Amino acid sequence: MILKLFKNVLYYPGCMYKFVLKDLGKKYEEILKKCGIDFIKLKGLEVCCGSPVLNAGYFKNFELLVKNNLRVFKEHSIKKVITPCPACFKTFKIEYPKFVTLDFEIEHVTQTIWNAIKNGKLKLDEVKKPLKATFHDPCHLGRYCEVYDEPRKILESFRYDIVEMEFSRENAFCCGGGAGLKSNYPDLVKEIARDRIKQALKTKAKFLITACPMCYVCLKEVADKKIEVVEFSSLFK
Predict the structure, then answer these.
(1) Domains within the chain, CATH numbers bracketed
(2) Helix, strand, or coil here: 78?
(3) Which residue(s) pair with 49 in the sheet?
(4) Which of 71, 82, 190, 230 is the most buried (most CB within 10 A)?
(5) Chain-wide mean pLDDT for the chain?
């Protein structure tokens, strides 16, 4: 009963940051602390958001994951969920409400960081001189949830000179890795990712920056040192 007296903010890393890109997942924890966010982690109590099984058509399994997560969130009086994973963000924001009425807010970490910068709670170490960078919009973050400005505003705060690719924002080209494609058709994923790298190279940017673990892995895998692929958390010292 005592837990219900509190309203907690949950840091929900998502499976890739939790099990594959662990260092980057922890980096986001450090960033949130610098933003003055008092958050909790549920570690083994939380389960996958359900995005992979939903995309694969296992709707009953998805409902079970939804019920499990919501039960745990309720038990720990979660009022807000902050996640660095666009797939988790889209799943909580768009898919969960199709089954239940959410009693918590959901934010992507770029929204949280931008709010902290805007409100003077987070000071950035600006790059010494403006460097050209291009931003790859993850499908789940951009096309589905229309989060385009916050990542770019953060980059501008770092004094990066943003050069847009031909296909960006709502018309952004996919990295190729979503919807289970990387697991089932890895060669096709590499072909799509190479096309995206070619588009990035046309901007003459030094960095290709993205705020999605799957996009980061897929693009970095084929970049072949032609352009430096950077995951968003790595911008912060």
Answers:
(1) 2-114 (3.40.50), 125-235 (3.40.50.1860)
(2) strand
(3) none
(4) 82
(5) 93
